[in-house]
Design a protein that fits this description.
It catalyses: GMP + diphosphate = guanine + 5-phospho-alpha-D-ribose 1-diphosphate; IMP + diphosphate = hypoxanthine + 5-phospho-alpha-D-ribose 1-diphosphate. Keywords: Glycosyltransferase, Transferase. It holds the Pfam family Pribosyltran. The protein contains four helices and nine strands; from the N terminus they run H-E-H-E-H-E-E-E-H-E-E-E-E. The chain has 178 residues and is an alpha/beta fold. It has a six-stranded mixed β-sheet with strand order 4-3-2-5-6-7. The protein has a three-stranded antiparallel β-sheet with strand order 1-9-8. The radius of gyration is 16 Å and the shape is globular. The model has no long low-confidence stretch (mean pLDDT 97). Bound molecules: 1-O-pyrophosphono-5-O-phosphono-alpha-D-ribofuranose (PRP) and hypoxanthine.
C-alpha cells in the first residue's frame, strides 16, 4: 500500500498551491465574518476531510461561535462514492441554531445534501455551508454551498484534508492524481 501511495504522490499534479489555498481560506473567512457576525453560529466540521479546512478557517473567524463535528462517509477507501454511512452525530443540540457546515470538497454533492437535510431535521433555523473546493461536473448536483473557496476541474484530488485511500490528507497543497 505504501508503495502505491508514494507513487501516486510523486506522479500527482499540483493544482492549487499552499499560497493559493491559504488566500482562498482568508477570503472565505472575510465573507463568513460579514454574513454570520451576529448569528452565534454552530460550526459543524464534516470529518475526516473537513478537519484541515475547519482548523485553518476557524482561526480567521472573529465572531462568537461553537464547534462540533459530524461524520458522514461514502468514499471509504475508494475513489468513487457509494452509500452514505453515518459514523458520528453532533452532541450539541441544533434546535434553533444557525449552523455552518464545513467540508473539504463538494464533488457530487451527495454528502453535503445529506448533512444539510440532517441539520434541518434536527431543527436548525438556518443552514449555511462552506467548502474549501468544489469540482465542476457536467451533471447537475443535488445541492450547492453558500461559501466556496476554489472551483476546480473534475479530477481525483488529495491534500488539505482530502485523501487518496485514507492517505495524503496532510499534503500541503491540492493535488490531482495523474
Ligand atoms: O460531494 P460528494 O461526492 O458526496 O463527496 C464529498 C465528500 O466526500 C469526502 O468524504 P469521504 O466520504 O471520503 O469521507 P472522509 O471525510 O473521511 O474523507 C469529502 O470529505 C466530502 O465529505
Ligand atoms: O476528489 C476527491 N478526493 C478526496 N476525497 C473526495 N471525496 C469526494 N471527492 C474527492
Amino acid at each position: 500500500m505504501l508503495t502505491e501511495i508514494k507513487t501516486v504522490q510523486t506522479q500527482a499534479n499540483l493544482l492549487h498551491s499552499q499560497q493559493e489555498v491559504e488566500a482562498a481560506i482568508t477570503k472565505l473567512a472575510e465573507q463568513i465574518n460579514q454574513a454570520l457576525a451576529d448569528k452565534n453560529p454552530l460550526l459543524l466540521c464534516v470529518i475526516n476531510g473537513g478537519i484541515v479546512f475547519a482548523g485553518q478557517l476557524l482561526t480567521r473567524l472573529t465572531m462568537p461561535l461553537n464547534l462540533d463535528s459530524i461524520q458522514a462517509t461514502r468514499y471509504r477507501n475508494q475513489t468513487s462514492g457509494g452509500q452514505i454511512e453515518w459514523l458520528l452525530t453532533p452532541k450539541t443540540p441544533l434546535l434553533n441554531r444557525t449552523v455552518l457546515i464545513l467540508d473539504d470538497v463538494l464533488d457530487e454533492g451527495v454528502t453535503l445534501a445529506a448533512v444539510q437535510a440532517y441539520c434541518r431535521e434536527q431543527g436548525a433555523c438556518e443552514v449555511y455551508s462552506a467548502v474549501l473546493i468544489e469540482k465542476l461536473l457536467p451533471e447537475p448536483k443535488p445541492t450547492s454551498a453558500d461559501f466556496i473557496g476554489i472551483v476546480t476541474e473534475n479530477r481525483y484530488l488529495f491534500g488539505y484534508g482530502m485523501d487518496y485511500k485514507s492517505y495524503l490528507r496532510n499534503a500541503n497543497g491540492i493535488y490531482a492524481c495523474s
